[in-house]
Amino acid sequence: MADLAAMARIRAFEEKVRELRLAGEIVGSVHLCIGQEAGPVGACSVLEPRDALFATYRGHGWALARGVPAEAMFAELLGRASGLNAGRGGSAYFTAPEYGFNGENSIVGGGAPLAVGAALAARVDGSGRVAVAVFGDGAVNQGAVHEALNMAGAFRLPVVFVCENNGYSELTPIAAMVADPELWHRAAAYGMPGRRVDANDPSVVRVATAEAVQRARGADGPTFLELMTERLVGHYIGDAEQYRRPGEVDAARAREPLVRLHDALAAQGVSDAELTGIVSRARAEIEQAAGRALAAPPADATSAREHIYA
Amino acid sequence: MPRLNYAGAVNAALAQLLASDPRVLVYGEDVAVPGGVFGVTRGLRKAYGPDRVFDTPISEAAILGSAVGAALMGCRPIVEIMWIDFSLVALDQIVNQAANARYVSCGRAPTPIVIRTQQGNAPGACAQHSQSLEAFFLHTPGIRVVMPRTPQDAYDAVLTAAHVDDPVLVIENRALYLEEKVDISLREHPRPMGWHHRRRGGEDLTVVTWGAITHRVLQAAGQLADQGIDVDVLEMPWLDPFDTAAVADSVGRTGRLAVVHEANRTGGFGAEVVAGLVEAGVRLDHPPVRIATPDVRVPAAPVLADALIPSVEAIAHGLRGAIRERAGAR
After folding, report:
1. Amino acid B325: pLDDT
2. By the 8 A CB rule, do A40 and A94 touch?
3. I need a labelling partner for B62 at 20 to 30 A (CA). Which of A105, A157, B158, B257 fits?
4. Nearest residue, CB atoms, A97 vs list B89, B103, B105
5. What SS3 state is found at B272?
6. Does the annotation count B129 as an active-site position?
7. How far apart are CA B275 and CA B319, in angstroms?
């Protein structure tokens, strides 16, 4: 039930973002995670506040799952002074270190070396921290990701590499861009366990992540998880998605994580009213958060030059 | 006062930092067990342990990116990029990651990292081991840049850089590492950023310079002094922050400005120094002069490289050009 509530909350957030983007309240490129909610919900449920998570520009779900307040995120998207980053980050560069959410990243694969550094720090600061590097399938073809995987493997650092494989590296099928589309196979070359995970089920993601986190915390080194997921929307809002196969998205809608968990809970005997209630409560909370953010004053133009140096 | 050469001075600063702050890490390619390809980090691993001083894969993105990540967690990493040319394979981690973190987080995620590297031509070095790239980084808001030339400045630059709560690029020069030992003060408390040195006093011309080429500038200025031309030589180790006021003050007296750097001319920091002076409204009696390597790749053969990188003679010639009118008026 908690998983359904958390996923419904992310879904409601992303749908509201889409509405606000299409209405012109939000400007710029926005990358939604609709269909991919089970990954962040499952994985973050086994992380602790001391852990550090580095996400991608498709990171709204990861931020929410780490506990970042929805209102501050809306305010950031809307360029408000009360935004998470006072308007400096925007959709693709949320940063909230106080929630163990150490940043989205607009550079594909750019966050993986940062996670390695957070793990290096854990080696000397006694925190017991685990670092989580989230990246998409396209990022496995970035040099920085390989450098990060190798260094983490060579030094047996406490990192969990989470590759969200939604089948598309931006607008291009990942299968066409690699010789071996089973991306988890790459883990072996870096001396770490790798596995494919059904990321349409948050409990499966939870179990896999818990195992990886336990290894990392126990000084047994990094793990590579390939979360098999599907994005039900374009790469960005406005993407015409002409690269999709006919019927592909409709088929994905039938097995997407919210539908699947809803049906599973119903089969277990959870009443329709209860299930509907979870979703409508999530929507109501998100609506209120968006409403408060919309009412907030814009970012302070006189602050634009602040915080460039200490 | 110990007598140290440039490499020894950098080593002493790193040792002082490792000893005084457990958050300091020193790492990079070949820095730990081998002690650095130039021997600069020799002995540090043994003294401070393999968790704080360690070798890395040949992975500049992982070195620089992990430094950012470690800094975000409260460490004070000091990483080495063996040649500044190699930073180009990982520019993303410096420009897109390190330089952005503080700004985007409104100061909640500072990245106090020191990137030690070295640059410049030395005999036989190829085009991928010879560049002078300070302007690349000076164009990036969020990063400090210092280019020490003397052992004392090298010690002070590393010490100061490690105490700054922002990314600082310390650009050393391998041709200087093994120059003669001199007495240096191993101060414990860092100097504030931004210092400069008046290496000669003069009223005929202001010369602004930095890095290893300062040696040649001083020789050229000596030659001019023999001819009765007195040059005010300002050596500016700190390029960001840069003390434009100090330059303006000197030019206010001399009315003439030359900037000398080893980096090539177009888009070099010399252009910025000249522009800053003009914008400051300082009156110039003669058009400013930039003395720099022409816009050419750097060839390996010394005879070719010497034809491009300003020699003492070329600098002296350029400086005389910068005061020609005044000399003629006498």
Report:
1. 58
2. no
3. B158
4. B105
5. helix
6. yes
7. 19
For B143, which residue in chain A has the nearest alpha carbon? A309
Per the rule left: phi > 0, alpha: psi between -120 and 50, beta: everything else, B107 is left
- Terminal CA-CA length for chain B: 47
Q: What is the CB-side half-sphere exposure of residue A272 using CA atoms within 13 A?
A: 0
Cis status, amide bond into B241, omega within 30 of 0: yes
Q: What SS3 class is residue B304?
A: helix
Please name the residues between 172 and 201 in chain A that touch chain B, using a CB distance below 8 Å: none
Q: ipTM of the assembly?
A: 0.97
Write the CA distances from A228 to A33, A41, A65, A241, integer angstroms.
13, 14, 18, 20
For residue A73, give both structure tokens: 């995120």
Residue ranges of alpha helices (H) inside chain A are 2-22, 38-44, 60-65, 70-77, 112-125, 143-155, 186-189, 202-217, 248-255, 257-267, 272-295
What would the mean pLDDT of B129-137 be, rounded to a whole number? 97
Cα distance between residue B46 and residue B303, in whole Å: 42
Residue with structure tokens 């702050």? B21
3-state secondary structure of B166: coil
The set of residues, in sequence order, having a beta carbon less than 8 Å from that of A304 and lying 6+ positions away, is none
> Is this structure's pTM higher than 0.90?
yes
The string of DSSP letters for A17-57 reads: HHHHHHTTSS-S-----TT-THHHHHHHTT--TT-EEE--S
For the record, the structure tokens of B59 come out as 């992975």
Percent of chain B scoring above 90 in pLDDT:
97
B66, B103, B141 ranked by CB distance to A151: nearest: B66
Whole-angstrom CA distances from A304 to A25, A88, A299, B48, B104 are 20, 8, 9, 42, 10
The token pair at A310 is 């200490």
Region B215-242: mean pLDDT is 98
Residue B330 clears pLDDT 80, i.e. is over it: no
- Would you call B102 and A116 a contact, using CB atoms and an 8 Å cutoff? no
Which amino acid, residue B69? G
Q: How many residues does chain A have?
A: 310
Residue A70: both structure tokens together:
């929805």
The one-character DSSP state at A85 is T
Taking the alpha carbons of A180, A182, A188, A189 in that order, is the dihedral positive or negative?
positive
Q: Give the pair of three-digit tokens for residue B147.
A: 């280019």
